[in-house]
Amino acid sequence: MANIFIFPVCPHADTAAAAANIAAQLPDAAVFDAAQYAAEGAELAAAGKADDWFDLLIGRAAALGKQNLVVRGITPNDEYLFLSRQNNELAGAFNARVVFAVSSGHATAGRVQMAKASFAGRAVEFGGVIGAPEDVAAAAGLAFLGSIGQPQNTAALAAPQSVRLSPAQFRFNMMEAARKAGKRIVLPEGAEPRTVQAAAICHEKGLARCVLLAPRQEVEAVAKDLGVSLPESLEILNPAELVEQYVAPMCELRKSKGLTPEDARKQLQDTVVLGTMMMAQNDADGLVSGAVHTTANTIRPALQLIKTAPGASIVSSVFFMLLPGQVLVYGDCAVNPNPTPEQLAEIAIQSAESAQAFGIEPRVAMISYSTGTSGAGPDVDAVAQATAIAKEKRPDLAIDGPLQYDAASVPDVAKSKAPGSPVAGRATVFVFPDLNTGNCTYKAVQRNANVLSVGPMLQGLRKPVNDLSRGALVEDIVYTIALTAIQAAQSAK
Predict the structure, then answer these.
(1) CB neighbour list of residue 332: distance below 8 Å, 6 or more residues apart
(2) Judging by beta carbons within 10 Å of its beta carbon (0-12, 13-18, 19+), is residue 218 exposed, middle or buried?
(3) How many alpha carbons fall within 13 Å on the CB side of residue 173?
(4) What pLDDT digit, counting tens, does each position of 418-447 carry?
(5) Which of 53, 55, 221, 434 is most buried by a 10 A CB count?
(6) Which stretches make up the Phosphate acetyl/butaryl transferase domain (predicted)?
(7) What confidence tens digit (pLDDT) does each residue in 70-121 have?
(8) Cα 196 → chain centroid
(9) Nearest CA among 403, 357, 397 for reference residue 380
(10) Are strands 235-237 and 465-467 parallel, antiparallel or unpaired?
């Protein structure tokens, strides 16, 4: 199964014919014309929502149900000049092999080489060039695919591709899975403005059945100030009216600690505790908090009332980092300050399982300041020990370490620093040695590379509870609610 992207090198290239003629030579193939939706793309891009367009295109293409898909890019013209610059992003969104299409009158080596260079730094495969003479293709280091009217050498375009989940594919898969899950997610910070907006969006998109814990008048006042329309399906529950029904169950859960009804009523004034009790009593499937609460305030009630999942000794976290062309998993960047080697091994296994659950092939790199035996010291030894424990527990997983970040992520560096490693140069799951390293790294990548990070998603709990950054955007909260709904569906199996 493969995706092929027809990239117009000049405005005169007949990309429609190139796409159709290549598709005709591939088994079970169809053409998906992104250019057909150019007006929609221009409108969304102008509103700063280009990612929404990519997600819509991924969904429409998936609906074709074909083994091989030939995607026609946007030809630059006066109307869509800016949009055509999104072709690189589109190729990455589809994780597609790029075929450069050139008209015969503009088939110069310089043009093709510049088009190829525009993908510098991106994880992309080049399928070749069509419409240019063979010497032009050779000069650019690309396969020669013949003329647009009579393609040749196209069989290689349908070869299986390396497994790499693009951000657009990840977002589309996540939204579809959340819709199918249909879970009830409680939001203890019910009158917090970003949370109100996110809940309304989730209901409009059918991602989850959200429950806002707050007096209705407060939520309606916030919505009015924001200009947000509250869907009728959105539940708004007054916490004061719920407390009493959870007093006795909470005392039962905490009887070993001697919890009295009076103390239970006092603790249930905290909406996070109240929401967690709703989960404990199966009145909610998941919980999302943290827009105003700390991580500790979100996790502590879950550890007391929900407990860890069978076989889990700790709770850890991952972020899904939506880099250009690829989604990576970072753990643990939010919970455990200084994990022991045993805990670090468990974090690695939990993170690999989370990656797998969301369609990412787990190749786990245990990150250190040293690769292999190039350095020594207690910190390196701890990572080496954790790697050995994780491998012993899960020999079916691709796990390697200690690895420096560049050795784990860059193929050329991996060749020199870790030759023969099953992970180096193509890691998808990065396990950091401590919270200081992990949190600093994810924030540096997120902010300086302008990368969307989804999470943190907590791992190891019997039912899903997820924490937000207090600087979370509305979009972050929507994604976290969707993740929580998917986790709830998985934990119910």
Answers:
(1) 316, 317, 318, 339, 347, 351, 431, 432, 435, 438
(2) middle
(3) 15
(4) 898 999 999 999 999 999 999 999 999 988
(5) 53
(6) 173-485
(7) 999 988 776 666 666 788 888 888 889 999 998 876 667 788 888 888 888 7
(8) 23
(9) 403
(10) unpaired
C-alpha atoms less than 13 angstroms from C-alpha of 68 in its C-beta half-sphere: 21
- The residue with tokens 């989804």 is 454
- What does the alpha-carbon distance between residue 169 and residue 3 come to, in Å, rounded to a whole number? 12
**What is 316-449's CATH number, 3.40.50.261, 3.40.50.10750, 3.40.50.2300, 1.20.1250.20?**
3.40.50.10750
Contact status, residue 12 vs residue 106, Cβ threshold 8 Å: yes
State the residue for tokens 């007096």.
Answer: 215
DSSP per position, 271-298? HHHHHHHHHHTTS-SEEEE-SSS-HHHH
Helix H or strand E segment including 416: helix 411-417
What pLDDT is stored for residue 105 in this prediction? 67
Length of the chain: 493
Do 318 and 431 contact (CB within 8 A), yes or no?
no
In the CATH hierarchy, which top-level class contains the domain 169-307? Answer: alpha beta
Helix (H) or strand (E) holding 68: strand 68-72
Distance set, CA 36 to CA 86, 98, 316 (Å): 14, 19, 44
Specify whether the CB–CB gap between 194 and 477 falls below 8 A.
yes
Strands 235-237, 209-213: pairing kind: parallel
Residue 299 CA to residue 293 CA, distance in Å, equals 10
Q: What is the pTM of this model?
A: 0.82
Q: In angstroms, what is the C-alpha Rg of the chain?
A: 25
Tens digits of per-residue pLDDT, 11-49?
888 999 999 999 999 999 999 998 888 888 888 888 887
What amino acid is encoded at 311 in this protein?
G
Enumerate residues 6+ apart whose C-beta is below 8 A from 36: none
Residue 232 to residues 61, 178, 364, Cα–Cα distance (Å): 32, 20, 44
Question: Which of 350, 379, 373, 380 lies closest to 490, judged by CA?
Answer: 350
Residue-wise DSSP of 198-220: HHHHHHHHTS-EEEEES-HHHHH
